[in-house]
Every structure is written in C-alpha cells, then in structure tokens.
Amino acid sequence: MEKLYYQDTYLRTAEAAVTSVRHTDKATEVRTDRTIFYPESGGQPGDRGFIGPYRVIDTRKADDGDSILVLDKGCPIEEGEHLTLEIDWGHRYGYMVMHAAQHMLSGLLYTNHKIGTVAVHQGEEYLTIETDRGEIEQSTVDALVDEANRAISEAHPIVYHELSHKDAEALGLRRSIKVEGDVRIVEIVGVDRIACGGVHVANTSEIRLVQSLGHELIRGHVRLYFRCGEQAVGSAIRSEKVIQSLNRRLSCRTEELEAQVEALQNALTEARNARAQAQRSLALYQVRENTDAEGLCLIGCEEGSDLLPYANAVPLFPDLAMVVLCPDKERTKWLIALKGKYEKVDFNGLIRPILTKINAKGGGRSPVFQGVANCNDSNALKGFMEEFRRTVLE
User: Fold this and answer.
1) Which CATH architecture describes the domain 275-393?
2) What is the per-residue pLDDT across 77-102, written as a single tens digit (0 to 9) for each?
C-alpha cells in the first residue's frame, strides 16, 4: 500500500483502487492500493472521511502496517472499484496540531526540566502527557507552557528523516526506538527529535497556542493535561470575554479579580452562616410555640424550608411528639420526633401505617425519623397530623 500521507501530510483527496473487502458482524473493512488515511497509532486517532460515496468511520492499522478503512456494516463496496478518497480535514488537522504539540511539550520537558514521557493520549478535548515523575511543581508546569508558546512564536520547522536503525540510535533520542529496520525521525528543528510514524503540521506556528488544564497523579506518575490549537484559541477568547464581563460587574481591573472573588466568597460564607443561625432560631421558636403541655407539636413549614434545624431542636426538649411537614413542589418532606415518654411509641408498628396513607417513605433512628411523601393535598396532610395526634396520645 502506498502511504500518501507520508509524502504529503496535507493531502486531502486522492484516487485509489479497492484491493480487498472484508465483511464482519460489526463493520466492513476495506484496503486500497494507496491511501491518504492515517491509521490509529501512537496515541493519534485514525482518520475519518469518505471513499467514494461510502463513509469511513475509522481507520485501523493492520499487522503489516497498512491502513484498514472501517465502513458501516454491510457496505456494498466491491473489490476492484476505483474511487476517490477524501479525509475529514478538520478531524485530521486537529490531531496533526495536537501530535506536533505533544512532541514539542515532551521535548521541552525532557531538555529543560529532565522529565521523561512514558505515555500520551490525544483526545477530542485535550492532550495528556504522562510523565516519569511522581511529583511536579506548578512552577514547572507554568514554565513549560511559557516555553511552548515561545517555541510556537519562533515558528520552528517540523521535518522528517529516514535513517537506518544504527544511525537513529546514535542520535541519543529521549525515547527508545520501538521499531526494527529503518526509522522515521520527526524533528522540530531546535526543539526535539523523536522516532515517530505519525503525521504532524509543518511548523510550530500552526499549533497557535498551548494552555495547561492542570495535572494529577495516576499510577504513581504525574499526568499533565493541555489544550492546544483552535481549541486553545477558542478557550482563550471565551475566557477573556468572561474576564471582561466580571471586570464590568465587579468594577475592578483584571489583576484585582481574584481578591474580589475571594471577598465575595467570604461574604457568601458569612451570609450562609447567618442564615443557618436564623433558621435554627426560627425552628426552635416554632417548636416552643407549638408544643402543648403534653409535649405534642404539629408544624407546617413554608415551601423550601430546611428540616435539619427542627431535628437539631429535638434534644432540647425532654418529652416531644413532633411532626413537621414542608411542601416540596409536588411532594412533602416530613420529620417526626418521638422523644422522652413518647419513645415507647412504636414507629414501625403504629406510625409507619399512618405515613403510608399519604404515600410517605423514609425512616431513621430514634428519636428522629424523616422522609418524603408523594402527596401535597392539604386535607390529606391535615388528616395525617390528626391521626398522628390520636395515635401518640392513646
């Protein structure tokens, strides 16, 4: 098979003859005498596109290195047909950019920071580089991104060399050579050299921008996440719009944003704490006001109220038989407390049968039980409260 993608990585269409067709229970697999379709390899996804009128949904690598075009199951393509190959250029070019960015980043990691690459993955949304380190400082990541974007602005050519295995080994590459025989070397002039069978852009300037998305520890190795190319540019534009909007809303400069956000977070925390305290005070007040001489308390809350403050009030009363009902859209949240002399009331045997009449589910541990009733009918809920009163006072 003639691999046209090595002769010209920017070739988008070509004529080819179908040399074999294999039908499986999942797809139709096709080989041609020449191809522009790069197969999935080295962390780079396979190409998509068309062969004649037939859609190519993926390209896999055969054991002999040829490209296998994966078509829909039962595709009527036939051996011997002469058809036009056309790749999905947006899909291919995005991964050419990402692959070149990966080489550039791994090369800079190795040369400038003595950090090796053990695995890479090129995904639809981001690029990952798994390193040989168990810890990497954020300052190192920041420096790497600065170095990468400088290399982009310097527009380093990306070229290819075919060398014997012996000559390639003599170069002292940052990664061992995994193939036998002649070796294809990808060189980012002045930045990196590596053995690679992938397809890349012709110049680092085409990468346009690299952004760090963070890092994490995976299997004892730090994995770095990056965005590059059009995705990084689009992300930067969107981020700038958000920053400008926040500047206007908060009446501050960009360098003041972080402090402003921190102040807002602190104010929000204080407001939440004050609200929680007010809810606790209100709940305690309601329980006291609604508890009669027998310790019976029946409360109907406003929609959206939190039941936790009512549960927290229970330990403050020696004897308490309490129901709290809170509307929640089409349902009703409920809380029942059986404290002191009312702990002898059998929740499962006496109270749960009453709850089932309002389609209530839930449970708990004495003295507090709670759950949700699939009922918001006021008459039914009022009837439940009255039956609760009769049950606990018997």
Assistant:
1) Roll (3.10)
2) 999 999 999 999 999 999 999 999 99
Tokens describing residue 340: 């002191």
In the block, tokens 């499962």 appear at: 348
Neighbours of 325 (CB within 10 A): 25
If we measure between CA atoms, which residue out of 280, 326, 281 comes closest to residue 303?
A: 326
Q: Where are the alpha helices (DSSP H) in the chain?
A: 4-7, 89-113, 138-153, 165-169, 229-250, 257-290, 308-313, 352-355, 378-393
Domain 2-87 has CATH 3.30.70.20: no
> How deeply is 348 buried, as exposed, middle or buried, from its count of CB atoms within 10 A (0-12, 13-18, 19+)?
exposed
Buried b (16+ CB within 10 A) or exposed e, 8-36: ebeeeebebebeebeeeeebbbbbbebbb
Asked whether the CA dihedral 170, 175, 181, 186 is positive or negative, the reply is negative
pTM of the model: 0.75
Edge-first strand listing for the sheet containing 296-300: 296-300, 320-328, 331-339, 368-373, 360-365
Q: Do 156 and 204 contact (CB within 8 A), yes or no?
A: yes
Rg (CA), the chain: 34
pLDDT tens, position by position, 282-322: 999 999 999 999 999 999 998 889 999 999 999 999 999 99
* pLDDT tens column, 147-158: 999 999 999 999
Task: Kindly report each contact of residues 135-140 with a partner whose C-beta sits within 8 Å and lies 24 or more positions away, as own/partner.
Answer: 135/217, 135/222, 136/215, 136/222, 136/224, 140/113, 140/115
d(CA 180, CA 58): 27
CATH superfamily ID and name for 93-236 = Threonyl-trna Synthetase; Chain A, domain 2 (3.30.980.10)
Domain coordinates in residue numbering, the chain: 2-87, 93-236, 275-393
Distance CA 338, CA 165 (A): 82
